[in-house]
Amino acid sequence: MNENNEASVMGSILKRAYSTVFFENWPVWVGGVLIGIMSVLTFAWARPWGVVGGLRNWADWFFNQIGVYSHAPVSPLISTNSILVLGLLWGAFGSALMSKQFALRMAPGLELVKGVVGGSLMGIGSAMAGGCNVGGFYIATSALSFGGLAMMAGLIMGAYLGLRYLYWEMMHLPSNPPKGGIGKRGISLVGIEPYIGALVFIGAILAAWFYAREAYARVGGLLLCGIAFGIIIQRTRFCFVRCFRDPFMTGEGDMVRAVTYSIIISILGFAALKWTGLRGEEVYVTQTFWFGSLVGGIIFGFGMLMSGGCGSGSVWRAGEGHVKLMVAVVCFALGNSLFKALIKSSEGLKALIGNRVFIPDFIGYKWTVIILIVIFLVYSLIATWNEETDKLTVEM
């Protein structure tokens, strides 16, 4: 085989590899497994994964700049909360470019209003629950907090109510398509997207190197972790909304199973880190049980159905160019910051929100892990049963 043929074969191999990674969606269960692993690695490196804390940091900084808050927050450029969310957005944006899936997608007027209302409700709910679907449910449960399970119950109820509302809206408030002549994919850069995406990821590596050089290696590592979350979630279309909505809407259970695989891995990893003393036992055990987690979960669940994205889902879809989700993210951040400030200013509200409950304090690590795994396996089995029977599916 001559050199030209060898080069042609190598080019073909690289082209197929690129297509496999960026042009074909990865199986959603792979996303669940990878997110579970990344969740544990991020916790082991520095701190748990989260979304709303970073968004609140941006909003707090904005309110401080315009004079609403007198206390200046940690700079968004070095806040670990902020960097994780920036990485999620960065990774999703770069991945969308590399896969030629980025485009500015306008939404009808009613959808933009729903983005405002839904994002604001997610901000209020996450302030009450001590986090969004990630921090208040996924990470809190992984951290063996009873608040995580309470928020899960709230999310299920909120998603059910939100779906009921969407069905009512479809019957009574038909939506018109957006005006302006923008096509199905909106304003796109298909021809040069992969090249811009490559520059985005090169920029990420340079940013992480810069942080390490300036003695912020911990922050630079978290930026790379956030970027990894963004890539994984964008390529697998991993969506917590579907975990709580699909059993009632379509009867599908693939996202429930993916979340189950993910959170079981995360629970095992967090439990090991806490049990061995490598991380503090009360780290990310939310002080929101039971009222804050349950009621906050209901409000958040309803809001995520209205906006069309949860905490992580809104950010990565904003990275793909969805204008409605961009609006939702802004309102999510501002709403959370304002309501969190309200809670902090009222002793009565703080008492109402709840207490910190670390499950192993009552039944030990072994039984805590076993019971949590059983709960999620049962939820997964119910979703799989529902796929065959449609017993939980809500009719219009």
TrEMBL record:
GO terms for cellular component: plasma membrane. Keywords: Cell inner membrane, Cell membrane, Membrane, Transmembrane, Transmembrane helix, Transport. Pfam families: Sulf_transp (PF04143). The keyword Chaperone does not apply. Signal peptide: none annotated. It is found in: Cell inner membrane. This is YeeE/YedE family protein. It comes from Candidatus Desulfacyla euxinica. The lineage of its organism: Bacteria, Deltaproteobacteria, Candidatus Desulfacyla.
